[in-house]
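User: Can you fold this complex?
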Amino acid sequence: MASPVISTPVRPSRPQATEGLRLVDLTWRDHLVRVLLFSLPFLGVALLVHRLAFLSNMHAHIVEKALLAADRLRLEVIGFLYPPLPFLSVLVFPRTWMPSVLASIAAGGIAWLLWYDLERTGLPRLWRMLLTVSVVATPTALYLATQAYPEVLALHLVVVAWHYYWNFVRYGHTFSGFVAGLVLGLAFYANFYAFLYAIALAGLVPLFRRSADDSRQTREHWATLSQMLVTVFPALWTAASWTYINWVFTGNPFTYLAGPVAAAIDSVHWRAPLPERVEWLREFALELLAQPLLLAVLALNAWRYPRRVVPLTLLATLPSLIRLAGLAYGLPLALGTYTLLALLALPERLPRWVGPLLVLFALLQGISGTALVLREGEVRQWEHVLTTGQARTSDLDERALAAALRQAPPRSILADDRGAYRLIARTESARPFLLPADADFPLALGSPKDRVQYILVSPSAPEDDVVSAQFRLGPPPGFVVDGFRADWIVYRRSDAPSLLVTP
Amino acid sequence: MGQPPSSVSWQAFSGSSSFPRLAGRSFVVSPDCWSSTCQRAAAETSPRINGNLRFFQCTIRRAEERRDRSLFIRGRPASSPVATRHRERLGEALVARGLLTQQELDRALEYQRRTGDRIGRILIALGLIRRRQLYHVLAELWGYPFVDLLQEPLDSRLARLFDPAELVQRRCFPVRRHGPDIFVATAEQPSAELEEFIRGVLGPVTVRPLVTTEWDIDYAIRTVFRDVVLDRAALGLYFRNPDESARRVLIGWQKVLLALMVIGVVLGLLFAPRTTAVVLSALINGALFLFVAFHFVVAMAGARHEHEQAISEEEVKALRDDELPMYTVLVPVYREANVVQHLVENLRRLDYPPSKLEILLLIEEDDEETLAAAKAARPPETVTFIVVPNGMPKTKPKACNVGLLFARGEYLTIYDAEDRPEPDQLKKAVVAFRKGPPELVCVQAALNYYNATENLLTRMFTLEYSYWFDYVLTGLDRLGLPIPLGGTSNHFRIDRLRELGGWDPFNVTEDADLGIRAAAHGYRVGVINSTTWEEANNHVGNWIRQRSRWIKGYIQTVLVHTRHPVQLLKSVGLKNVFGFILLIGGAPFAFLSLIPLWSITLIWLVTRTHLFDVLFPPAVLYMSLFNLLIGNGVMIYLGMLAGFKRRRYLLIPFALLNPFYWVLHSLASYKAVWQLVTKPFYWEKTRHGLTRYLDPSTPLAAAGD
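Assistant: Here's the predicted assembly.
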C-alpha cells in the first residue's frame, strides 16, 4: 500500500534532480534478475574449477571458519574473523563451492552495474557490450570473480557505492549520499581497503562536486564538508566498531589487520625501509602505464571534463599508495581496480567513434594485465588448472585425506586450523577436530593421549601452527604414524583405528 | 419567558419620525412592527434596553457623526420580513450608509469575483467593516430586528432543548419563548429551513427571527451550554467508546497481565535468577534490534522517495480561489500572552482567502492574561476567541475539542501560537484531500524549527525533528503504515474528525493517538511537502517536561490501542500492528532501556567485571553488539542525513552528539513512567516564546544555515 497522497508522484521542478541514473528506478527484482544473468559466465567457470578440486587459500580460510562457527555455535570462538561479511554469508551453507558461487554473483552484480552505468556514455549498445565483455573475460577478472570472494565482494560494494556517490556529489541526491556512505561502511566488512576508498572518496568530494550557483560561499564550504562527512562517517564508524570488538575479545584492537583471510598488512613489506619503498614506485608506475584503457579514460576526461582528471588520477594511484604504505593489496585486486575505475570514470555523452577505440584499449589492458597477473603463484596455478582441465595432485590428495578425516569421531583429531584450514574446509565439517578455539585444546596439546585419537601435523605448516610445531619431529607417547597424505602426517593413538588404511 | 428580547434594537427607518427615543439617543423603535403585547413589553423593559445598548449607541453616534441617518433600519418581530428595501444589495446599502466607500466596495467585489464568497464575509475578512455593523445592516435588509446576545438574558431551559452542535452549524440560537412565538437569533438569512428546524424540536410554534452575529451565537452557546461543552470536550470520546479513551490507564486484562509479569519477574529472579536474567536481557536486546531495524527500513523508504513531492507547485497554482473550501484553524493557547501578537502576524501570511478562513483562538477560562493580550493584539475579524470552560482535564486536546464544536470549516488544522506555517500549506492540504482517496482523513505537514542554531539543545532537537518528519513520517506514508500525527499542522476533514470523536483529552499525545485511531477505523493519514516552522525548546528543564509528556502519551497510546489486540489485528492487519507497536511502543522502550544497558557497558569497560557475563549468552551478545555498534551508528547517521536534506549543514556534525541527547530522552522516559503511575492525565505544559528568534521577521525561519 503506497502513500494515499503521493498517488501520482511528481518530480520537483529543479532540473538537476532528474539527471543521472538511479538504481532505484528499477525494482530489486529487476536488478536481481539482471545480476543473475550477468553472473552465469562466472558461475560456469567457478563450478568448472570446483569440479577440478581447485580451492584458493582465501576461500579455504573462509569455509573453515564458517564450519567451525556452525559446529560450535559461537562466533567469538573464532576471534571475530575479519572480514566478517564473506564469512557470515558463507555461514549459511558452508561448503567449498559456496564462496565461489557467491563471488560469481557479486561479480555478476559488478558486470550488471558497469553495463548499466555505461548508459551514461551514450555509446551504441554494440560497443558497450563489447567493452563489457572485453574487461570481464580476462584471467584477472575471472580469478577475482571465482576465487577471491572478499575482494570481489568489496569491489562490488565499492562499485555500488560509487554509483550512489556520483549521484550524491554531482546531482545532490541526499538519498544517494546516504546509501553511498552506508555501502562503503558495509564494504569495510568485506575488505579493509573499502575503508581507504571511503576516505579517498570523501576527500575527493570538493574536487568532484559540481559547483552550485549559490553565491553564499561559506554555505557552499559547509555543504562540501557535510558531504564529506556523510560519505565517510559509516566507514569510520564500522572501522571503529570492529576495532572495539577486536579490543574487547582479543585485547588487541588491530588484530584484524593481520587476519589470515584478507590480511591488510603485508608482514614483509610493512617493515621495509623507506629507500626500498621508493624503489617500488618505478614498478607501480610501470604497472599503471600498462593500463591503456585507464589512461585513455583519463585522457577523455581531460578532453571533456578537465576538473575530474585530478581526482580520478588520485583514485588511480590509490592501489600504489596502499602498497607503498606496506599494506597487502594483491596484484589481481589492483588490476581489477584499475579496470573498474576506467569504466566507471568514462565521461558522459561520448561521440560514437570513441566506442571502438575504447574496446581496443580494453583488449590491450586485458592482455597486459594477464601478462602481469600470471606471474603470481596461485593465479598461475588456477589458470593452469582451468586451461588444461587437469586437477593438481595436491588438491586431489587433500580431498582424499579430508574424506578420510570426515570419518573420525567428534573432537578426536588434534589440529591447528592456522595450518590445517584447507583440510578442515575440504572435510566440510569441523566436528572431528579439536582446535585452538576449543577450551580443551591446551590440555590436549599437553597430554594428547588423554584427549584425542589423532594428530594432524604438516612439516611445511606455518610457524603459528602449534600442533605441527610441537609434533613435527615425531608422534607423542602413545601415538604412531598412521600415514602420509598431501604434505600431512596423521598420528594415530595406538588403540585407535586407522583413518587412512581401509580394513 | 413571555417577553420579547430585551436588547432587541428596534432601529428605525431613516424616514420614520414617530418613534420614541430611548435615553435621549436616536434609538427608535418602530411600533407598527410590533404587536401591542410586544410594544408593552418593550416599553416595560426600556430601562434595561437603555442600559444594554451601549454598542449600538456608539454605532449610532458614529452614524450621526457621519451625518447619515440611513444606518437605522427597522426590525420586524415576525416570521415574514418587511418587504421594503429587500432588493437593496448589501454592498450598496453599506455605501449608502457611509460604512463603506465605493472604492472599498469595488475592491471587495473584485475579491468576490475571484473567490465566489459572500460579500459580507469578504468585507469582514478584509477588515473593511466591523461584524456588528454588517449585521445591523443585514438585519435591516432582511427586515428583522437585531439582537445583542451579549446583553440579552438567555433562556437556558429553552435553548437546552437543542443540540449545541446543531445550533453552531445552523448559526442560530433560540433566545426566548413568548406564548407560541419563539424568538430565534440567527446569523444567516432567516429561511423556511430555520423554521422547520425549530419546529422539529419544539413542535408547532411561530418562529420570530432576530438577527445577530455568529460571534453572539457562539457566545450564547458557550454560556448556556457551558457544562455540555465541557462534558463533550472532556468526556465525549470516553462516553462514545471508553476503550478508545485513555481515561482508564489500564483495563482489566492489562492490569492482570502487568501484575503477572511483575510477579513472574520477581519469582524468576528469586528462584531462577540466571535464566530470568538471560530471558530479560534477550527480550530487551531483541526488541531494541527490531526497533533499530524498523527505523532503518522506514527511514530508507522515506529517503528513497525524496524526489517525489506529494503536492507540486503547479497543483497549488492550479487551485482557483472560488473552489477553496472554508478552513478552520485552531490555535490553542495557554499562558502564552507573549506570543499572541506573533501568532496574528504569522497567520496573516497564510496564502488563503481570508474570507474562507476561520481562526479559532482557544483560550482557557482562567487565562485572563492571554485573553487580554489577544484582545490587545487587535486581531483581524477572522479570528474568533473561544473561551474554553475551566475543568479537568485541562489539556490541549480538550481545548481542541471545544474548538471542534464551534468549527464551521470543511477542513481544520491546528497551529501552536508561535507556529510559522509555509504560506501555501492550507492549499496543499486541500489539493492532497482532493487527490487522496475518500478514506484520507488527515494530512500531516512537516514541522521544523526556526531557532535551530540557538543552542546545543535546539540543534539536537532540530536534527531529531528533521529525521522524524522528513524521513520517518514520509517512510510510514510510503509503506502504508499508521502515522502518528505531529503536535500541529495536521489537517483534517472536519466531518471525519467528528466521526472519529475528536481528540482524547486524557491522552497527553492526543495527536499520535488520533493518527492511530484513524488507522484503526480504516482511515488513512498522509503527509504533505510543506513545513511549519516552530520554536524548538531551548531549555533543558522545559525540554524534559515536554518530552516526558510525549513519552507518557506514547505509552498511553499503546495501552489504549492494544486493549483489543485481536480486533486491532483484524481491523488494520499484522503489518500495521507491527509498525504501530515498534514505532509508538518502541520509543519509550528504547529510551527506558538505554540507561541500564549503557551503564552495564560503562561499568564493564571500567572494571572488566564478569558479573554481567551471564546476561549475554552468544546470541544475545551478538544482538547487543549489533545494537551498540551498528544501531547507534545508523541512528546517528540518519540524523546527519536529515540535517543534510534540510540543507542545515552546520547542524550535521552535531548528530555525532546524539548519544548524549538520547540520555536526556532516557531521563525523560523515566519521568514519564513515574507520571503515568502518579498523574496519568497531567499535561506537562511546555513554555513557548522563550526563544530570541520569536519575531517572525527573523530571517532564519525557512532558510538553512
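The domain at 247-564+596-652+668-705 of chain B is CATH 3.90.550.10 (Spore Coat Polysaccharide Biosynthesis Protein SpsA; Chain A). The first helix of chain B runs from residue 36 to 44.
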